[in-house]
Design goal:
Layout (H helix, E strand, L loop, with lengths): L9 H9 L7 H11 L4 E4 L6 H15 L9 E4 L3 H14 L8 E4 L5 H12 L4 E4 L1 H9 L10 E4 L2 H6 L3 H8 L7 E6 L4 H10 L4 E4 L9 E7 L5 H10 L6 E4 L3 H13 L4 E4 L5 H12 L5 E4 L14 E4 L6 H8 L9 E7 L4 H11 L4 E2 L12 E3 L4 E3 L34
Parallel strand pairs: 1-6, 1-7, 2-4, 2-5, 3-4, 5-6, 8-13, 8-14, 9-11, 9-12, 10-11, 12-13
Antiparallel strand pairs: 15-16
Helix pairs in contact: 2-3, 3-4, 6-8
Length: 426
C-alpha cells in the first residue's frame, strides 16, 4: 500500500515524495488509517519497522488540517531517552517540511540552564508538538511552564523501556493532566504483563496492531559459549588477547553488573566504558561520543542502548547474560551487521540459562553454534535440553581456538495541470 492511497493531507504527501518515501511498511499500513479515524492504538513493533512515521504522519496531517488551538500544545510524544527524542524530532522536521505552522521542540534533561530557557520560550510560545523525556517534561509541568489541558494527541513510544527505566510514576502523573478526549497511541517492542496493564489504564478501547518479531540479519554470525559464570571474564580475556577487537558492545542484564564488568575489563587493560541509567545525561552523551569517535573500544551496557541508537559499524555484540526473551535477543544483536556490514554475536550461556537460550533457538528455528571453551579455563556445563533429554557438544573441554535515513531533495516537485501529484518514478 502506498502513502498516496491514504487520506494523509497534501503537505505530508509532498514531503514524503521529496524524501522518496512511497510504499508503507506493515506497521504504517496498519496504524495510519486507524489513527486518522480517531482510534487509540496499541502497537507492538521493534525499532526499524517505521513506527515513528506510523504515528507522526497521521497526527501531523490532522493537526495541519484540523481546527486546533494555535497557542496550545496539540501533541505530546514521550520517549525514554534523549537520543530517541532527538531522532523523533529530526524525523518530525522532514515530515512537516511543508507545514510552516506545525513546529516541534524536543525537551530532555542533562542540559545547562540555557537549554532549559530555550525550552521554556518555545513551550510558552505554544509549540504544536512537544517531544519529551518523562522527567524533563514533568519538571516543566511542575513549575507551570506548559499546560496539557487542550492537548489532542498523546504518544508513548517504547513503553517497555519506559517501565524498565522506572518512569511509570512520571508517566501516570503526566497522563492525569490530559483531557479525557485526548487520542492516545502507545508503542512497545515487547508486551510483558506490566506494559499490558499500562495500556489498559491509559488507552480507550484501542485497536491493537502487532507485528511478528523479525529474525536477525543473515549477515550476523551467531555463536555461543556454554560456561559457568566465573569463566565468562576468562573467555573475554581470551577473545581480546587473540584478536584486535574494537567496536564491541557487551550487554548485561543489570546496571550493577555493568559496573562490575567494566571495572574487571579495565583491570584486564581493555579500553572500555559503561552505559547505564545511573549515569547523568551529560555522562551518557560523553560515553556515546567517545565510543562513536573510536576513543573507546568496548561499550559495556544495559539494554538502554539495545534499541533506538544508530551506530552502524559495531563489529561484535557479546551477551554477557542471556536476554530474557527472543525479542530482547534480536534487539541486542541487531546492533551489529547494520548498513550491509558483516557482524558477530556471541552469547555466554551459563548452567541456569540453558533452557532460556533453548527457547531463543526455537524462535530462531536453528541451533546457534557452540564454541569450545578456550584451553586452560576448565570444563563448562553440558548444554542439556531438559525437555528433550539430550546434550549438545558445546559444554565440553576443548583446546579449540575461537575464530577469530534519507535526505530531502530540497525542492518541491511539480504537479500536473489538475493539481494532482505526479506518481513517483522510483
Amino acid at each position: 500500500m502506498t502513502f498516496e492511497e491514504t487520506y494523509l493531507n497534501d503537505n505530508i504527501l509532498d514531503a514524503l515524495y521529496d524524501m522518496h518515501f512511497e510504499e508503507m511498511t506493515p506497521i504504517q499500513e496498519k496504524c495510519i488509517p486507524q489513527i486518522l479515524d480517531g482510534h487509540d492504538v496499541l502497537g507492538v513493533a521493534q525499532t526499524g519497522t517505521g513506527k515513528t512515521a506510523a504515528y507522526l504522519l497521521p497526527i501531523l496531517s490532522m493537526i495541519d488540517d484540523g481546527n486546533y488551538p494555535e497557542d496550545s500544545i496539540n501533541c505530546v510524544v514521550m520517549a525514554p531517552t534523549r537520543e530517541l527524542a532527538q531522532q523523533i524530532d529530526q524525523a518530525m522536521e522532514g515530515f512537516a517540511y511543508y507545514m510552516p505552522n506545525v513546529s516541534s521542540i524536543a525537551v530532555y534533561g542533562g542540559n545547562d540552564g540555557g537549554r532549559f530557557d530555550q525550552e521554556l520560550k518555545s513551550l510558552r510560545g505554544g509549540a504544536p508538538v512537544v517531544i519529551a523525556t518523562p522527567g524533563r517534561l514533568l519538571s516543566h509541568l511542575k513549575v507551570g511552564n506548559l499546560n496539557l489541558a487542550k492537548t489532542s494527541f498523546f504518544v508513548l513510544d517504547e513503553a517497555d523501556r519506559m517501565l524498565d527505566m522506572g518512569f511509570i510514576e512520571d508517566i501516570m502523573q503526566i497522563t492525569k493532566l490530559l483531557p479525557q478526549d485526548c487520542q492516545k497511541v502507545m508503542f512497545s517492542a515487547t508486551m510483558p504483563s506490566k506494559v499490558r496493564q499500562l495500556a489498559v489504564s491509559l488507552l480507550n478501547h484501542p485497536v491493537e496492531v502487532k507485528l511478528a518479531v523479525s529474525r536477525p540479519a543473515e549477515k550476523i554470525q551467531q555463536q555461543a559459549y556454554v560456561c559457568y559464570d566465573p569463566q565468562k571474564l576468562q573467555i573475554i580475556d581470551h577473545l581480546f588477547r587473540n584478536g584486535d577487537l574494537k567496536r564491541v558492545i557487551i550487554f548485561c542484564g543489570k546496571k550493577d553488573r555493568v559496573k562490575d564488568i567494566n571495572r574487571e575489563l579495565r583491570r584486564l587493560k581493555i579500553n572500555c566504558a559503561p552505559m547505564h541509567s545511573d549515569l547523568t545525561q551529560q555522562e551518557r552523551d560523553d560515553v556515546m561520543y567517545r565510543f562513536k569517535a573510536g576513543m573507546v573500544d568496548v561499550l559495556v551496557a544495559t539494554d538502554i542502548v539495545s534499541r533506538g541508537i544508530d551506530i552502524d559499524d559495531i563489529r561484535i555484540v557479546i551477551n554477557f547474560d542471556v536476554p530474557h526473551d527472543a525479542e530482547d535477543y534480536v534487539h541486542r544483536i541487531g546492533r551489529t551487521a547494520r548498513a550491509d556490514r558483516d557482524g558477530q554475536a556471541i552469547t555466554f550461556v551459563n548452567d541456569h540459562d540453558v533452557q532460556r537460550f533453548r527457547q531463543i533457538e526455537r524462535f530462531l528455528e536453528k541451533e546457534v553454534e557452540k564454541i569450545p571453551l578456550p584451553e586452560g579455563i576448565g570444563q563448562g556445563p553440558a548444554y542439556v535440553y531438559s525437555d528433550e533429554k539430550k546434550a549438545s557438544r558445546g559444554g565440553h573441554k576443548s583446546a579449540g581456538k575461537h575464530r577469530g535515513g534519507q535526505r530531502r531533495s530540497g525542492g518541491r516537485k511539480d504537479k500536473g495541470r489538475d493539481g494532482k501529484r505526479k506518481s513517483a518514478s522510483k
